[in-house]
Amino acid sequence: MPASQPARRALGSGRDTFRSTVLNIGEVLQELSPDFPGISASKIRFLEEKGLISPQRTPAGYRKYSAQDVERLRFVLALQRDQYLPLKVIKDYVDAIDRGERPDALPGGMSLAPRIVSDGLAQELAGRARSFTLEQLGEAAGVSEELIQELLSFGLIQDHGACYDEHALKVVKACAQLGAHGIEPRHLRPFRSAADREMGLVERVVAPLSSRKDVASKARAAEAAKEISDLCLNLHSALVHGHIARMDR
Questions:
Q1: Looking at CB atoms within 10 Å, which of 6, 87, 129, 247 has the fewest?
Q2: Is residue 157 assigned to a domain?
Q3: Quick one: pLDDT at residue 101?
Q4: What's the domain range around 139?
Q5: Do 172 and 208 reside in the same domain of the chain?
Q6: CATH number at residue 143
Q7: 118 within a domain of the structure (yes/no)
């Protein structure tokens, strides 16, 4: 069977059992997890950010996935897992199919035959974030260890067993840029307090879902938490920008 045939089938109308149904992200995880045990809500959102899927949105902003979206996800994840293909190559391939083209084979003439997943790819599919040591964090952010220690002392970043995640890197970079304006770490403690209060609000709202044991409920809780936190950030930005606009009057 030509390699292009599985690709076209995977991007088709999906399984009959949910052909006319739209799914939330928790239900999508239930559909995909038997074949891709490491799949997570953050992984699906990442693929959306890269333009590989475009789910519909409800008026409230929640994502709804069609059968075509789910089968497209299944196809993309299979190519990542079995062929080690980068997302850009996969996107070019599925975009060609969307344009009505029919590539004879995958890039490089690869087939869709599965092969052993590397440790690195398995880690990516599990959605595990990159971690840094203190020294690596300083190098990645271009700052001194002294600044990182200051940020730790004021609670702006946290030490998780001598490891730091991508969020810590973003915080360090932002604090370094603020430092160029004369704003020191000690001035930024209110941001930590405000973030903790906002997260307390988010956690209370999603508690009925996050307290459940099933994967779908936890996925819906994570999705709702992300949506609410984004709205909180939008509100904060609007309030600050409103004050700045009034300064110009």
A1: 247
A2: yes
A3: 66
A4: 130-183
A5: no
A6: 1.10.1660
A7: no
Residue-wise pLDDT for 62-108, tens only, equals 899 988 888 889 888 888 887 667 787 788 877 877 776 665 555 54
Q: Of 93, 106, 91, which is closest to residue 51 (Cα–Cα)?
A: 91
Residues 194 and 179 in one domain: no
Verify that 75 and 139 share a domain, yes or no: no
Domain count, the chain: 3
Taking each helix axis as running N to C, give the angle between helix 215-247 and helix 189-210, from 0 to 180 degrees, rounded to the nearest 10. 150
**Per-residue pLDDT, 58:** 87
Phi, psi of 223 (to 5 degrees): -65, -45
Q: Are residues 171 and 195 in the same domain?
A: no
What's the alpha-carbon Rg for the chain, to the nearest Å? 22
Residues 89 and 47 in one domain: yes
What pLDDT is recorded for position 219?
66
Please, are residues 73 and 28 in contact by the beta-carbon 8 Å criterion? yes
Each residue's pLDDT tens digit, 138-170 = 999 999 999 999 999 999 998 877 788 888 999
Do 232 and 198 touch, CB atoms closer than 8 A? yes
**Residue 27 shares a structural domain with residue 58:** yes
Tokens representing residue 217 in the block: 């409920």
